[in-house]
């Protein structure tokens, strides 16, 4: 029989440094739900439900409804991710290991996350920079970034805004510079409905189009674990994709430091040395203060917390409304959990 687990849930409203467009909306803050679990030995673990409205299979409204009216049968992917993170965190706390070691051996002890073109330049040799491309006019920006340093590479994200012909034109305009394109993500609608890989000079990456086994028509599979469910099951999916000869890239979805810690460890476990963790750069504040862990071009796993966690004093300050910034106010509200039957670690 499992030890009894006591849960608390918190709605966290993270202020952003500047408004950002997401799907059909403009965000000025990012709302997520944090779950805190404590077993009868006093071990504590945290998980984060961070649905990305318009992209994943559930929404923040769905998550809040599921907490208010628990359904033990249908567990939302975002909540499954939070609870799976907690289960692995409690297991790690018991074993004295890290979150990811509860899934399997760590493959990378140092990560070099891709940087966003909006982040401060100059970029360092070996950096991978992600750029949005919406038209052939963006070729000049790509060339500008590549000219900053001969050892910089780029990831291009079309967000399905190009046509097949525009994609070919863009790559033709880049010429030999395509050798420095790490991959081209989601270039045009329907790209992965059939196999187009032989038609383009750069690797093709699937992200939001990922559905079932259509990753077979991609060179790179980008996963957002926060939207996929239990991290252990996500890791199994990723390993199956890797076994089929595809590359896995772990990507963030505007999580707090709790979710970001889970993602970073998962990337280290899967061997993704260059995950896409740039969304944290948009955060102006966080529980316990905004972390600087994801601001650097290199992340040593030795510097990462072994499991996603929040210090008790930081939580008390947040609930008391201790804002560290007048301009960017952090909001934390405790949610009522009617019963724990649907929550199992």
Q: TL;DR?
A:
The chain is of the alpha/beta class. The chain has 7 helices and 13 strands. The longest helix is centred in the N-terminal third of the chain and has 19 residues, at 77-95.
Feature tags:
345 residues; alpha/beta; Enolase-like, domain 1; 2 domains; TIM Barrel
Number of helices: 7
Q: Return Rg in Å.
A: 20 Å
What is the straight-line distance between the termini?
A: 12 Å
Strand content: 15-25%
Which descriptor suits the 3D outline? globular
Structural class: alpha/beta
How many structural domains can be distinguished in the coordinates?
2
Secondary-structure arrangement, i.e. CATH architecture of the largest domain: Alpha-Beta Barrel
Written as H for each helix and E for each strand, in order along the chain, the element string is EEEHHEEEHEHEEEHEHEHE
The amount of helix comes to 10-25%
> Main β-sheet, in a few words?
7 strands, parallel
Mean pLDDT: 91
Q: CATH superfamily of the largest domain, called what?
A: Enolase-like C-terminal domain
Here the CATH topology of the largest domain equals TIM Barrel
Compute the number of strand runs.
Answer: 13
Low-confidence stretches: none
What does this structure look like?
α5 packs parallel to α6 (257-270). The protein is 24% helix and 22% strand. The model has no long low-confidence stretch (mean pLDDT 91). The protein contains seven helices and 13 strands. The chain is globular and about 60 Å long. It has 345 residues and is an alpha/beta fold.
């Amino acid at each position: 029989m499992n030890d009894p687990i006591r849960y608390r849930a918190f709605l966290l409203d993270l202020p952003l440094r500047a408004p950002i467009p997401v799907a059909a909306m403009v965000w000025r803050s990012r709302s997520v739900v944090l779950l805190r679990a404590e077993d009868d030995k006093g071990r504590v673990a945290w998980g984060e439900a961070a649905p990305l409205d318009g992209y994943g299979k559930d929404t923040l409204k769905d998550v809040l409804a599921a907490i208010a009216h628990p359904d033990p049968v249908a567990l939302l992917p975002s909540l499954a991710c939070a609870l799976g993170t907690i289960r692995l965190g409690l297991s790690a706390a018991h074993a004295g290991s890290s979150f990811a070691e509860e899934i399997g051996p760590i493959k990378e002890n140092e990560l070099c996350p891709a940087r966003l073109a909006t982040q401060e330049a100059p970029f360092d040799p070996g950096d991978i920079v992600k750029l949005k491309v919406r038209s052939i006019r963006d070729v000049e920006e790509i060339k500008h970034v590549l000219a900053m340093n001969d050892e910089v590479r780029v990831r291009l994200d079309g967000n399905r805004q190009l046509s097949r012909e525009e994609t070919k034109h863009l790559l033709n305009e880049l010429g030999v510079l395509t050798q420095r394109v790490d991959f081209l993500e989601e270039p045009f609608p329907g790209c992965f409905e059939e196999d187009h890989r032989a038609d383009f000079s750069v690797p093709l990456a699937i992200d939001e189009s990922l559905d079932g086994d259509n990753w077979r028509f991609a060179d790179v599979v980008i996963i957002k674990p926060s939207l996929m469910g239990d991290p252990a099951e996500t890791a199994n999916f990723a390993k199956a994709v890797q076994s089929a000869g595809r590359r896995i890239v772990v990507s963030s979805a505007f999580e707090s430091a709790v979710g970001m810690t889970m993602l970073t460890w998962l990337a280290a476990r899967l061997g993704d040395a260059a995950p896409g963790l740039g969304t944290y750069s948009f955060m102006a504040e966080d529980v316990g203060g905004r972390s600087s862990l994801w601001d650097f071009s290199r992340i040593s796993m030795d510097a990462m917390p072994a499991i996603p966690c929040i210090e008790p004093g930081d939580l008390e300050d947040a609930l008391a409304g201790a804002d560290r910034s007048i301009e960017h106010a952090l909001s934390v509200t405790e949610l009522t959990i009617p019963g724990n039957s649907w929550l199992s670690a």
